[in-house]
Amino acid sequence: MKVLLHICCAPCSIYTVEILREDGGKVMGFFYRYNIHPYTECLKRQETLEEYSKKINLRVIYQEGYDLENFIRGMAYREANRCEYCYYERLKATALLAKRGKFDCFTTSLLYSKYQKHDSIKSIGEAIGKSVGVPFLYHDFRPGWKKGVTESKRLGMYRQQYCGCIYSEKERFFR
C-alpha cells in the first residue's frame, strides 16, 4: 500500500513511519509549512525532518513557499476553532497531493500526539478523503508516544514546545 504521510515534525514521524512500514506500507512524507510560525520555527522543524528522513531513507515532499498571510487570513475570526481549520488545510493539501501521486491513502503524524483532537482529525480526514477520492487512513499512533519521545531525545532532535501556529505559541509561552 502506497501511503502519503503528512508530517508535522520529525519527532512525531518516528513512530508513525515505523508502524506504517511494519504494516507493509510504502511511505512517503509530506511537510506542510504554512501553519508553522514564526518562519524560523518552520525552518528548524524542516531541517530536523530533512536530517532524520535521510537516516531512515524516507522520501519527503516539502511544501514550497511560506503563505503565512493567507493562512492567518483564513484563521482570523475562527480562533475558537483554529485547530479544525488547521487540520482541514493540512489534510486537504495532503489528500490532493496523494491523488496527484496516485497514493492508495493518506494519513497524518498528528495522530501520534496525545495533545491533538483525534476525533476532529479523523472526521475531517475521512470527509476530505471522500471528496478528493483518496481514502484517509486512521490509525491511533498514541500508544507509541513514549517510544517516539525517547527516540527523538536519543537522536538529539530539535523538539518544539508548541503545536505550530502563532496562537499555540502564545498559549505556550505567554502566561
Give a verbal description of the structure.
Helix 2 (39-55) links the parallel strand 2 (26-31) and strand 3 (60-62). Helices cover 51% and strands 11% of the residues. The protein is globular and about 45 Å long. Helix 1 (10-22) packs across helix 6 and helix 4 runs parallel beside helix 5 (118-132). With 175 residues, the protein is of the alpha/beta class. It has a single domain (2-173), classed as HUPs (Rossmann fold), CATH 3.40.50.620. It contains 7 helices and 4 strands. The chain has helices spanning 10-22, 39-55, 68-75, 82-100, 118-132, 145-154, 166-173, and strands at residues 2-7, 26-31, 60-62, 105-108. The relative contact order is 0.21. The model has no long low-confidence stretch (mean pLDDT 96). It has a 4-stranded parallel beta sheet, with helices on both faces. The termini are far apart.
Low-confidence stretches: none
Based on the coordinates given, report the CATH architecture.
3-Layer(aba) Sandwich
CATH topology: Rossmann fold
Q: What is the terminal-to-terminal distance? A: 46 Å
Number of separate domains: 1
- Broad structural category: alpha/beta
Order of strands across the main sheet: 3-2-1-4
Number of helices: 7
| Number of separate strands | 4
- Main beta-sheet annotation: 4 strands, parallel
Give the helix proportion (percent range): 40-55%
